[in-house]
Amino acid sequence: MLAAMGEHEATYPPLNTLKPVCEDVWIVDGPTIRFGMPWPKMPFPTRMTVIRLRDGGLFIHSPTPLSEGLRREIAAIGEVRFIIGPNRIHYWWVPDWRAVYGQAQVWLAPRIREQAGARIDFAARELAGESGYPWDGEIDTLPVAGSFMTEVTFFHRAGRTLVLTDLIENFEADKLGRPMRWLAYLGGVLAPDGQMPRDMRLTYAKEKPALKAAVERMIAWGPERIIIAHGRWYEKDGAAELKRAFNWVPQS
Asked: Cβ contacts of residue 59 below 8 Å, gap of 6+?
């Protein structure tokens, strides 16, 4: 479970409001949570991605809190059609969105139920493969499996936008206190050179060939930008940033 939620300088105000990325793609910066070891816990800024499909349906990736103001903004751009929990530790606000948008389909990455317990006590579909989804015509889906969790990545083809969650984290030094800067540096997630956290890399050690194939697939998509859940996201040169961030994985 994610630890106590609250405001923190590490995040990206204004919060809980749509921010345009490109045509039909928005982000919403949410509050900071504290997550990690019992002590010290790292302050994680949170971020949601919203994609509008051609029929006006909205694809909600890794939901952040649903304020009344955000609810009005969402209503102005489309109808919430899909609510996505992209990995086992990104599910906390999914039930809140489902309670408001009961007509939407909830899609969850593997092992979310194991992590969430009673918080996810409703029917949902599993993100188990690369195709067979209602959004296939506009968004590519790629599960990236490790021993601890599977992160499901998405690529919005029209916007050339890759949406990740924790596969890359990119914490800015000026948004962290000095001890946390050292933690980010040691963890390999200090901006602008954010990567997969070093402890998380260990959970992909046995799956490196599959991870290599997934990275190559994402590079081949040719993303212009990469949205991530924690820290500064990459507004340009997405494919080059992928090559840099995964330089520890042997690439062809």
From this structure: 50, 51, 52, 53, 81, 82, 84, 135, 139, 154
Check which CATH number belongs to the domain holding 82 and give it. 3.60.15.10
For residue 38, cis peptide bond before it (omega within 30 degrees of 0) = no
| Residue-level pLDDT at 42 | 74
Judge whether 200 lies within some domain: yes
Q: How far apart are CA 97 and CA 79, in angstroms?
A: 12
pLDDT at 2: 40
Q: What six digits make up the tokens of 155?
A: 């690529």
Domain count, the chain: 1
Instruction: Return the pLDDT at 141.
Output: 98
* Within a domain: 24: yes
Q: What residues make up the domain containing 198? A: 5-244
- Give the pLDDT confidence of 12-37 residue by residue, as tens digits: 999 999 999 999 999 999 999 876 55
CA 167/CA 189 separation, integer angstroms: 10
Q: Which residues pair with 150 in a beta bridge?
A: 145
Task: Examine residue 93 and state whether it is found in any structural domain, yes or no.
Answer: yes
Q: Classify 122 as helix, strand or coil.
A: coil
Residues in Cβ contact with 74 at an 8 Å cutoff, skipping those fewer than 6 apart:
18, 50, 58, 80
Q: Compute the average pLDDT of residues 181-201.
A: 93
pLDDT for 33: 86
CA 73 – CA 251 distance, rounded (Å): 42
* pLDDT value, residue 63: 98
The set of residues, in sequence order, having a beta carbon less than 8 Å from that of 241 and lying 6+ positions away, is 168, 226, 234
Residue 250 lies in a domain: no
